[in-house]
Protein 1
Amino acid sequence: MMHLDQLAAFDRVVREGSFSRAAVALGLGQPAVSARILALEDAVGGALFLRARRIRLTALGESFLPFARRALEVVREGVAASRLAQVGERGPLRIGSLGSLAGELVGPALAEFVRDHPQVECTVRSGHHEFLLELLADGIVDAALTVWPPGGTGLDLQAIFKLREKVILVAAPAHPLARRREVRRDDVARLARPLLRLRWWRSHHPVITALAEESRAPVEIAMEAARRLVLAGTGAGFFPEKFIAEDLARGGLREIRVRGLEPIFRDSALVRRPHAPMSPALASFIDVLRRVAKR
């Protein structure tokens, strides 16, 4: 077996051209350097140096030198990477997110994080609530932004921080609901054409379920596809406000205020397994995500 100190001694003797100068550079006695070289020669199966007034590499030494230096460089890189990982500058960051929060919340936070931590390997997976819990259970992600409370999953989860966002009914400006001066509950069921039923929580909200039943022709559809439909003027739907914030600001969608309808909210949280170790990279990303969420 060869050891790093033997490889380091070999490299230093080559660089210095002398056992004695190599010993000075390494802070060792010359006998210690000679012993390390002898042990390395025993490991590789032959002499590495021609020992004369001026030492020279043997053919074996010439062929072995680049591999010894590559091994030393790999170890140096590993030590440097480990030190950077200890302060959150290297290593993996594995995050999960609800699709409806991935673009408007996780995206800006990740952009800020990557700018300041360019060497961290980032992976973000998005999907529905149950998919994210599976990723957490299997250790594929270290934290996930999902609905809260998570329900009877059997998983022990810790909420790092929680979010509450309003869920609003929206339609295109030319939609019949958007053109009315006042909208009542029965107007929604009658005029949505169709009412788009979106799954932005563990299950459909009871108020929206009742409205869908009254409309008699609801459409159950994924959030992004529903957004495209309402932007095109087809149908109306209840969306988490953050998901369609830009469309509202641009005027592509309009909020429909329904008289007599109590406000609807969606609660979510960034969660993790409480007994899993938290890497410095994850801790740094959580700080960024918390700042972006507050903004």
Note: Residues 59-86 form the longest helix (28 residues).
Protein 2
Amino acid sequence: MISQNHMEQKTTAKDFFLHLGAMVALYTATVSFLNLIFKIINKAFPEVAQNIYNWGGGSEISMPVATLIIFFPLFILLSYFVNKIYIENPVKKDLGIRKWLTYITLFVAGLLLAGDLVTVLYKFLDGQDLTAAFLLKALAVLLVAGAIFAHYLQDIRDRVSAKCMKTRPIVVSVIILATIIWGFVVLGSPQTQRLIRADNQKITDLQNIQWQVISYWQMNGMLPQSQPALETYCVQNYCLTGINMADYEYKKTKEMTFEICTNFNKENMMSQNQYQGMMQVTYPGKIGTIENDNWNHKMGRQCFTRVIDPVTYPTQVRG
């Protein structure tokens, strides 16, 4: 009997990869779920300081949703096969691979719980602002890590009933599905995400056009007289050839002033407080000298008026 149990407890290649695959799928789905939650919170409760090069948020929801759609069902499927092995051969619950991976998961979840609580307590004791976004993110980590810790602590003690093994995946699936739907409501549908991505690319193109105009001024001591003059201008082998200039319009309005225009798919407006906070983070100590980076826009045609500051951007032409 002892030798038979010993043989049944031996870890096979199937046991190893099923257990390992289930845990990898769990970690990947968990990270993607938290990532999705964080992006929803960032949109619903925007921080004052944001990165200027991520103006509209883009299609941030795509990767975590795609990962969840693949890896969470994979985790459920692999867990089903693992539990089937336990039902057919209960002695397999004593496999070393199961215990190692379960205790590693408990350790990681415990670290997340402790780190989450320490971060909240530190910010409180340090007198820092506990914003709604930060508290919601901390709560999300606390709930997710706590649920994983509680489940696997029960599992290693063999206290998870057959009913719970069936109902818990259903409950978690409903929560994940509701979160994905919530994410699309807050951040926009896939079609909306494509439009936002296109608008973000237009902002990037406008920034490149703007700096090309500034470079033209610094090298020639004047603004380009027309759009063709700008399109054919190159500096250090950099030209605007990678940009479809048919989508944009450049116009010199005064000696040091110009406009660049394009059409946008969606409105994207940032409050003055948000903009100032963002600029203080992105360009510390230079507020007032950088006037060419506010890209607030409404849907449809939008023109941006720019005034070149000769002190900030001195010309290299010698009189």
Note: The chain has a mean pLDDT of 82.
Protein 3
Amino acid sequence: MIEFRVEGQPIPQGSMKVFNGHVVHSQGSALAVWRSAIAYSARKAGAFPKKDAMTITMAFIMQKPKTVKRDYPTVPPDLDKLIRAVLDALTAIAYVDDSQVCEIYATKGYGLVPGVRIQIAEKV
């Protein structure tokens, strides 16, 4: 099992906009930096592309705005879009293709330092 943490504001994947007839990601440069940080951290933790079925656990930490009273981040970004960014970032890093991921456990909560904690394990 490989476990690592990536600090920084989690960026979702999937929000597309049309600009002058071209489809572009609404946070393209920020997403690229976020995905690179995930890939770098995974490599540093010892990840390499495996061909087995995989289980991934992700805990996203969002910074709680001072004016917010709720206990959970029930506002964007959507958890499924945060997951997609991580899965795509780990393609060819921790597995050959993200279709190998057979189990996903993910949470989104508030904390002091934004980021994501990721565990990657081969499914036994």
Note: The two ends are 11 Å apart (CA to CA).
Protein 4
Amino acid sequence: MEMSRRSLFRHSGVAVGVATLGGFELFSQQKKPDPFAGLKSMTAGVKPLDPADYQARIEKARKLMADQKIDLLYLNGGTSLEYFGAIRWGLSERMFAMMIPARGDIAYVCPKFEEARAREQIKFGTDVRTWEEDQSPYALVKQVLQDCKIPSGVIGVEPTVREFVIDGMQKACTTAKFVNGENISQGCRMIKSKKELEHMTLACNITKKAYEAGFQTLHEGMSQGELRNNIAQAHTRLGATGSGGPSFGPSSGNPHGSILDRTLKAGDVVLVDGGCAVEGLHSDVTRTVVFGKPSDRFRKIWDIVKKAQEAALAAVRPGVPCEAVDAAARKVVVDAGYGPDYKYFAHRVGHGIGLDGHEYPYLVHGNKLPLQPGMTFSDEPGIYLANEFGVRIEDTFYVGEDGLGHIFGETVTAISSY
């Protein structure tokens, strides 16, 4: 039986080279090749979003506002501000806001001392209203509504806006009606463009390649932190900032691992969950491998999880409710004896993904939102045996124009051991 290449590179940073001379096998130790040596940036030449891409998002938001009789969308710092305005702005107690009216010019409310920094980033609209530290930003919001002729209008508030900001606006704008604006922001964000899908494909391919390089460094006594750093290094070499959170052995029996930093032993299950971003759009990938020889019990559970992942993807069709994808995966797991409900498969099968690693919509029981082409999700069933080991296989997919679910990049087809 021919020895696999991976088995040659298994332990202690050395490999066993095999040569034949006169019918006898000669064994010699040689240094393990650097798994990072061949990694080169995959992000050179990536096409960023251009102003037309952002303008299309703004116009879609305005169409949704008109359909739902919302007069203005209020955004603060975070990924929705980045999505619509190409502005990266952190949250603080000081209001920085982008306000998109259904009709009329976009306006901004900004701390006066931040005005120069804000104008460096603002690309859409020129109406920037500033407030000094002893002034109220809420009075400026009221002015914007008056100038847009909607003082009694319906204001859609992006879901991440904090309660104290909403309270301040309600007290200042007593005739306006403030409502949850998630149908506008999420209605735009959950459908990805062709360019966005390309960025996500690249991000997923980078993470999968980084994992493979990281797994090649597994060795007896390795810490989880060392593997995490190796995977981060591989991402950097490949042109993206990213990493993966490893769980060794019994820690993998918890879906999100343990605070214990275990060291690697022969036979340990290694579960890694992580990703990176390309032009702000995320990958999310989980792989479960074995350091050494997989046990029969591990093989059985890995196969069940893989079939559950495939069942979830096969359930994807436009018009199918999100909850049906979870149900398809959960049925495989429960029918195999790992139920009921969330007993061993302890979480939903997937979440939306884009500028945020987790974003709406979610593939979970009770979510009857119909799938649409351009939606993107994780597909990540798992089985977790407390104090023993866990298996999760996760890939990110999109709903294609052909009506099928498509994995970004290559998916795993067989158990890997190192």
Note: Confidence is low (pLDDT under 50) at residues 1-30.
